[in-house]
Design a protein that fits this description.
8-stranded mixed beta sheet, 20% strand, globular, alpha/beta
Length: 223
């Protein structure tokens, strides 16, 4: 499988969360994701990746993420999978190899950050069993999303998603909910993995999950 990978970030994280995320993804065999900096890039970003896209004037998290998805599709039309990571995660050891063994083409997308656990009754839980399963609570974070390139193109074709940057309420976040709102009516399922394949390290916001768990209860097992 051929991946096209990117990390969305902001200049304020260039000294702490971003380097740790890049190092973690490099160890997971994603050696050089393109950095999409929502603001001005500098030598710190160039030291972390040979490929950097800077916005100059910030667009907000949603605008940066949406343009990052579009740019990866345009730059890598022969990719099988588009992977977009945020700058505050730790990847499970052996992640890429595990994904290559377990992801199967389908009308779906994969969310690598999974809240809760199969043996709990927490209403914020998003998974119901080990391995890949349809999410019980779609739209619970955009820390690490992977799309078949056909699904990424389908998402980019939806008029609704392009109206969100003009909405002041949605300008800064809520990527997860926008993806869900666009793809659910098209019968494109969100699949999540038990246990979580990434651990979240920063603050997390969600329009529909105001009490969303900030960290995964179980994390790191790839067999």
């Amino acid at each position: 499988m051929k991946f096209a990978c990117g990390i969305t970030t902001v200049p304020s994280r260039a000294d702490d969360l971003l380097p740790a995320t890049v190092a973690s993804l490099r160890a997971a065999d994603f050696p050089a994701p393109r950095l999409f900096v929502d603001g001005r890039a500098d030598a710190r970003h160039e030291a972390l990746s040979p490929d950097v896209t800077a916005r100059g004037e910030p667009l907000g998290a949603f605008g940066n993420w949406l343009l990052a998805l579009q740019e990866l599709v345009i730059r890598h039309p022969d990719a099988d999978l588009i992977a977009l990571f945020q700058d505050d995660l730790e990847a499970a050891p052996g992640l890429r190899g595990y994904l290559e063994r377990t992801l199967r083409p389908a009308s779906c997308y994969w969310n690598l950050f999974t809240t809760g656990g199969a043996d709990t009754h927490d209403p914020t839980d998003s998974w119901a069993g080990p391995g890949w399963n349809p999410s019980r609570r779609p739209g619970t974070g955009a820390v690490a999303l992977i799309f078949p390139i056909e699904t990424a193109i389908l998402l980019l074709r939806q008029a609704w998603i392009h109206g969100q940057p003009r909405d002041g309420i949605r300008r800064k976040a809520f990527i997860d909910d926008c993806v869900r709102r666009c793809l659910q009516p098209l019968r494109v399922a969100e699949l999540v993995h038990g246990p979580s394949l990434v651990q979240h390290k920063g603050a997390l916001r969600s329009t529909v999950r105001s009490q969303l768990q900030l960290t995964a209860s179980t994390f790191g097992e790839t067999r």
